[in-house]
Design a protein that fits this description.
alpha+beta, 6-stranded antiparallel beta sheet, 9 strands
Length: 172
């Protein structure tokens, strides 16, 4: 039974396309949350928001990163599955310890384009476009690594599900 006291103020959901880092006039890092139909600012870092989202689904960012490392051997700027059952896979644009790190939802990315040597335009499936301070090569690498991680984790989950179903049938 769910606890009636759970309060969610700023939740990362399957509708979240990105959690972007932006400094305000005082130099404080905030999170700009882009969803399919709205955008809002949260007075915390993007990485803290991602950590809270992981905790909501029973882990932590550290735990998700360790899981990614065990499955795919990716150790730097590793993608994570916040909640694989709902397709919530995100990848960082920089080291999560960097205050300029933003997080992009893999399932919402339609395409990316190079903007010079150090910037990339991200085009989301809903037509929204953003520019991130990350090279095209680095963004392509992040997209590909996230796709490979997602495939590996999904395959593991399907095998486990099939194994459970087969054991149930054997008992019948």
């Amino acid at each position: 039974m769910l606890d009636d006291k759970i309060t969610i103020t700023h939740e990362v959901t399957p509708l979240t396309m990105a959690v972007l880092s932006k400094k305000d006039d005082e130099g404080t890092t905030n999170a700009i949350v882009l969803e399919e139909k709205k955008e809002y600012t949260v007075h915390t870092t993007p990485t803290k928001m991602i950590d809270e989202a992981c905790k909501f689904f029973g882990s932590s960012l550290k735990g998700r990163l360790e899981g990614t490392k065990d499955i795919s051997r990716i150790t730097h700027k590793a993608p994570i599955a916040i909640d694989p059952s709902s397709g919530m896979y995100f990848f960082p644009t920089a080291s999560p310890s960097n205050t300029e790190c933003s997080w992009i939802a893999h399932s919402h990315v339609k395409d990316i384009h190079s903007i010079g040597k150090t910037k990339t335009e991200v085009i989301f499936k809903n037509g929204r476009r953003i520019i991130v301070n990350v090279s095209y090569g680095s963004m392509m690498n992040q997209l590909q690594r996230t796709a490979q991680f997602r495939y590996s984790l999904d395959t593991r989950m399907k095998i486990l599900k099939a194994t459970i179903e087969n054991k149930k049938k054997e008992k019948e």
